[in-house]
C-alpha cells in the first residue's frame, strides 16, 4: 500500500470550479480523499475519491474527521461561504488539522470612478438608497436576495438567478417579486452582459467579488461600457492559519506536508 493511503484521507470542500479541479488533481495521485458539498452535485470522482453531501456543523465535522482519520482539509468552496469558513477554522484548530485554501484568480481592484467596493451588502443598500439609483440589477446570486431586501422592498430591483427550479423557489420563498427575476446563466460574453444592462434600463449593478470563476471582470467591463456604476461586495477575509494553494504543484506540497506533521498553526 502506498504511504499516502496508509495515513488517512484528506477532506475536500468543493461544489465549485476549483473543487472539481482539485478532484482531478487528486485523481492523479495515490492520496485518498473525501469530496464534500452542501447540496448534491453530479460529478464523477476518481477511484481514490469518495463523495458526501450535507452541510457540516462544528460537531459533525469534528466527528467526521476523527472517524475517518482525516489528515488535512482542502478548502475549495465558494469565497463567500462565510459560515463554512468559520466552521472549518474552529474545527481545524481544535483538532490540529492543516487547511489548504485553493485560491481563485481575482482581478486587480479597479480605481475607476464608477466602480465602488463595499464591505457588506448593508453598506451597498445604504449607498444605493442614498444615491437614489433605480432600478438596480443584482448579479450577486440568489443567496443574496435576503441580504438586499431593504433595497428591493423600497425600490425596483432586477435579480438574475440561475435557471433552476431550486434557485427560483429560493427567490420566491424570500418574497422577491416574480416580475423582477431574470432566470439566466451568467456568462463570459461581454456584449451579452452590456445588452442586458441596456435592455433593462438599470441605473446601477450589484455583484460580489467572486473572482474570475464568477466572471467578475466581465461584469465590471459591462457596467463601464454601459456607463452605470457597479457596487462590489469585497470577499471576506480568511483565517491566518489557512495555507494558500495556487495550482497543482502547491496542492501536492500541501499534501506532502499533511503526511509529515503539518498542523493548523504551522
UniProtKB/TrEMBL annotation:
Transmembrane feature ranges: none
Domain of life: Bacteria
Organism listed in the record: Hymenobacter frigidus
Name this protein carries in UniProt: Precorrin-6A reductase
Alphabetic keyword roster: Cobalamin biosynthesis, Oxidoreductase
Residues of the signal peptide: none
InterPro entries assigned: Precorrin-6x_reduct
PROSITE patterns in the cross-refs: COBK_CBIJ
Pathway where this protein functions: Cofactor biosynthesis; adenosylcobalamin biosynthesis
